[in-house]
Structures are given as C-alpha cells and as structure tokens.
UniProtKB/TrEMBL annotation:
Name the record gives this protein: non-specific serine/threonine protein kinase
Record keywords, A-Z: ATP-binding, Kinase, Nucleotide-binding, Serine/threonine-protein kinase, Transferase
Gene name of the record: Stk16
GO molecular function: ATP binding; protein serine/threonine kinase activity
InterPro entries registered for this protein in UniProt: Kinase-like_dom_sf, Prot_kinase_dom, Ser/Thr-specific_kinases, Ser/Thr_kinase_AS
Enzyme Commission (EC) number: 2.7.11.1
GO CC field: Golgi apparatus
Keyword Kinase: yes
Organism whose genome encodes this protein: Cryptotermes secundus
Pfam family, one: Pkinase
C-alpha cells in the first residue's frame, strides 16, 4: 500500500474513533475536555456539519431533584437575555440510567466557546508578573459585569440571584467583554426563612453551590428568621473587584491556608496591600459592597451609580 493510501486510512480511522455527541439530531465531535465541577463536565466540541466550535455542558442527574435543578438552569438561559450573560444555543435531556455513576439521566447544554477563557485564568496569568490592570479599563469591565448582574436582579416575575459569582464564572470574549456563566446555582433571590429547618436547608444548599471565598456572610450562618435577597450577589461583586485589583478574592488566602473562611468573612476584616497602585476611591467602592450586614449593603443600581462616579473621578485625574 502506498503512503497516500495509508494516510487516508489513518485519517479515516481517526475520524471514526472520535467521540461524538448527538443533541437533537445534530452531531458534534468532542475535541477536548475543558473541565468539570461537582455537578457537571464541559467539553469543547465541533459541529460535524458547520465545523464551528462550542462548549457542551453535561449535567449528570442522580435523582429527580438534580433533574429539576438542571431543567431550571435551561429555563434561566431562556429567560435571561443579556450581552454579559452567556447564551444557550441548544439543550437536550437524555434518559441514561448508569449504575456506575448512580445516575438516572443526563442533561446536555450547547454553549458558546470563549477561547480567552475566564477572568480567573487571566488574573492567574497576570499575578505571575504582578501585571496590574489599568484602573479605568478594569472598572469598565466591572461595570459590564454589574450590568449582567442587574439583568438577574430585574428578572420577571421574580428577581433572581446568581449565588455563585466569582472570577472563574466570568468568561472573557474576543473584545474583552465579560460574560457571566454557569447558571446552575441561580435561584429566586428573595427568600423568607421561617424556622431553623429552612435556615439549615438554605445553608446546606449554599455550602454545596456557592464558592467559599466569594460567599456572602449571611449564607455561612443562616438565621432562623430572616430575609435573604439579591444582595448576596453584591458581596460576591465586592470580592470580584478586589480580585481584579489584587488577583485573588480577599478570602482566598484564608481558604488556601485551611483556616476558617466563615470566620474571616463574618468578621468583615478587609485589608489592602500597602503598595497598591489604585486610588482610595476604588478601595471605598470595594468596601461599599463588602458590608457584613446585608441590610446595609447596596442594591445593584447603587453599585453601578457609584462605579460610574469612580470612573469619572479617575478619568479626570488622568
């Protein structure tokens, strides 16, 4: 056999051996495994017909409650249409009982693929050489994140909260715009807690779905009689802006040391590096969001207004 014939056979063999995914009669080739969380995996795929690349999120459902949460996530993609919130191109539910994974079904969601990755990835790269973001560009990016969050908080018929806002859940588009992803933790924002059982239930859910270094204090220790609202996201935004300045959340170091993040968060003791390249107004904006008492914390409208004010002051100084 000549070398050309062999190369064709090898190429055909390579195509045939590719893992494929079928979603609503559309075939995708799996190119790469991008990552996984506690409830899902994400693959980079190529549409077999158009050759466009996408990210496919697979959610393994171990029971009816998991399935309900996954279907709710798909519903939220349809409800939340905003340039700073990730869109969903397609989705499918497949009944796939798997005794090994102890699962009853699998939900697949076709999402856009952002080759620049996440804000967390960008900050990790910057941290190596202490490459600080330009203050004005940083605040404008943060403003777009806030605009995305506002879409959650203005959702109808009920305001929604993302509940897991963090740098790893913000993608960066080709034009440097931030895009909020992972709607798996999204919930109705305003929850009235009546009794210790309801409080424990919400606390358990938060510990399962809300990342510790970005989690609001009221979700670490939920009171038996209280009101939880969308301002849980405002705390997370304060942690995100801090990370945009100094590469990590103010509570990441505590988490990495293995110390109590809950105690650190509830104490609300936020410090800034002595050699900070940023104006005091930016620190004030961060502290404005990181108020331990949720009733003293601003709503998203006030955060946007204050961010615009800080941007104008910085631009005047420049």
């Amino acid at each position: 056999m000549n070398s050309l014939g062999l190369s064709i056979i090898l190429k055909m063999g390579c195509i045939c051996s590719r893992e494929t995914i079928l979603i609503n009669s559309r075939k995708y080739y799996v190119l790469e495994h991008l990552g996984e969380g506690g409830f899902s995996t994400v693959d980079l795929v190529e549409d077999a017909h158009t050759h466009k690349t996408y990210a496919v999120k697979k959610i393994i459902c171990h029971g009816e409650e998991d399935l309900k949460v996954a279907m709710k996530e798909i519903e939220y993609y349809g409800l939340l249409k905003h340039p700073n919130i990730i869109e969903c191109f397609d989705s499918a539910l497949k009944d796939r009982p798997n005794p090994v994974l102890n699962s009853i079904s699998e939900v697949m969601i076709v999402l856009p693929y952002y080759k620049r990755g996440t804000l967390a990835f960008d900050l990790e790269r910057r941290s190596v050489h202490r490459e600080y973001m330009n203050a004005s560009e940083m605040l404008n990016m943060f403003l777009h994140i806030c605009e995305g969050v506002k879409a959650f908080h203005e959702a109808k018929p009920n305001p929604l909260a993302h509940r897991d806002l963090k740098t790893a859940n913000i993608l960066i588009s080709d034009d440097q715009s931030p895009v909020i992803m992972d709607l798996g933790s999204v919930a109705v924002a305003r929850v009235k807690i009546c009794g210790s059982s309801e409080a424990q239930q919400l606390q358990d859910l938060a510990s399962e779905r809300c990342s510790m270094p970005y989690r609001a204090p009221e979700l670490f220790s939920v009171e038996s009689y209280c009101m939880i609202d969308e301002r849980t996201d405002i705390w997370s935004l304060g942690c995100i802006l801090y990370a945009m300045c100094y590469f990590k959340s103010p509570f990441d170091a505590v988490y990495e040391r293995g110390d109590s993040v809950a105690l650190a968060v509830i104490s609300g003791n936020i410090t800034f590096p002595d050699s900070s390249p940023y104006d005091p107004e930016i620190h004030e904006l961060i502290l404005y969001m990181l108020r331990v008492n949720p009733m003293e914390r601003p709503y998203i409208y006030s955060v946007i207004e204050k961010t615009l004010d800080v941007i104008s002051k910085i631009e005047v100084k420049a």
